[in-house]
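Students often ask why inverse folding is considered easier than folding. One informal answer: many sequences map to the same fold, so there is more than one right answer. In these notes we will look at a single instance of the problem. The structure comes first.
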């Protein structure tokens, strides 16, 4: 029997499931089609940071979108907990960003200046060990970003799957999408490994694989490519790292159960998800330089994931040019966890109302229409 829906979402990561939940809450019959396991790609290989300030090198449209999304996070995660029964461990204790050299200190001082000028809160810490007692004595300077937060991305992914299903979405795993079908300039559905699904709207949220989805003739694929990131999972006492630590060389993010996620790399390695000894050594060195106590922790596991990047490192969110009914929600690079709530709201607005008040300037798929792809 042929399957039909109002909307097909291609990709079952945090972005795809957040979109499906939001569409379901607004009454749209939604099917999510995931090539592998739900939440198993970039969503799983993340540290769960909701940190537009700490992770921004300068002002611009991505920072504006990130700040707007961060502002929604508290209400969003409360609703997810109520719908799913899962605590996603949303923590609002800020991030400590340290400088280990004079050059690092100059970079952080410049970041603090422009962010304060923009009206954002940044605190220079006179005694950083009060917040993180395990900090190295080598720290030359430390900033506190009190409004940057964190979430347990594994629990978030599970909660979104449950909430999307409760909202009425149908989620299909291990079902690759071969192509988007269209006729006379309008989307008609998708062809999958399990048969066609008819729908007037398709949202491509396939992450690093977004460009591999077949499209109607004359429609260019989104210029999304994979960037490998490796993460180590360490385990120790719950208070070994009291709150997230950043430097210009890496991060160490604590979990409620005593784990610490240390990362990460940015590698052009194609679709090869492999942990390498050299990267692991570099990640450990960066974490130990911030907090020597990390060296006594147990190395529990390590993994690699593929972040969906674009040529300008901004996501692609909105209607695809050239065919009615095709939308993109991909290319979130290192900001998928941060941008999930606002991306879901924007896409649902566009599908249901045909417009959105979300600040999507600089994110339009049309910006690549006449640009040579990577």
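Output (designed amino acids):
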């Amino acid at each position: 029997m042929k399957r039909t829906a109002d909307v097909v979402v291609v990709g079952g990561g945090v972005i795809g499931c957040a979109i499906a939940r939001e569409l379901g809450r607004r009454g749209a019959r939604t099917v999510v089609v995931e090539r592998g396991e739900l939440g198993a790609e970039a969503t799983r290989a993340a540290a769960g940071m909701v940190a537009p300030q700490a992770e921004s090198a300068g002002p611009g449209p991505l920072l504006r979108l990130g700040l707007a999304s961060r502002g929604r996070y508290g209400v969003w995660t409360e609703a997810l907990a109520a719908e799913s029964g899962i605590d996603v461990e949303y923590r609002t204790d800020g991030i400590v960003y340290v400088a280990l050299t004079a050059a690092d200190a100059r970079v952080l001082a410049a970041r603090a200046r422009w962010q304060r000028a923009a009206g954002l809160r940044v605190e220079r810490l006179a005694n950083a060990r009060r917040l993180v007692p395990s900090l190295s004595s080598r720290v030359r300077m430390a900033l506190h970003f009190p409004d940057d937060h964190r979430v347990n991305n594994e629990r978030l992914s599970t909660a979104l799957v449950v909430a999307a299903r409760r909202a009425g979405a149908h989620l299909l795993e291990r079902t690759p999408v071969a192509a988007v079908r269209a006729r006379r300039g309008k989307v008609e559905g998708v062809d999958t490994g399990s048969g066609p699904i008819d729908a007037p709207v398709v949202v491509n949220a396939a992450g690093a694989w977004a460009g591999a989805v077949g499209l109607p003739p004359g429609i260019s694929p989104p210029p999304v490519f994979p960037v490998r990131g490796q993460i180590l999972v360490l385990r120790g006492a719950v208070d070994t790292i009291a709150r997230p630590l950043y430097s210009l060389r890496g991060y160490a993010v604590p979990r409620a159960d005593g784990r610490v996620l240390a990362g990460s790399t940015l590698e052009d390695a194609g679709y090869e998800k492999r942990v390498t000894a050299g990267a692991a050594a570099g990640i450990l060195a960066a974490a130990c330089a911030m907090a020597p106590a990390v060296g006594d922790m147990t190395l529990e596991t390590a993994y690699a994931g593929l972040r969906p990047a674009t040529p300008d490192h901004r996501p692609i969110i909105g209607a695809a040019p050239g065919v009615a009914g095709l939308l993109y929600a991909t290319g979130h690079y290192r900001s998928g966890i941060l941008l999930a709530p606002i991306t879901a709201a924007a896409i649902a607005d566009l599908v249901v109302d045909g417009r959105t008040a979300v600040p999507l300037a600089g994110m339009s798929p049309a910006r690549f229409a006449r640009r040579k792809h990577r």
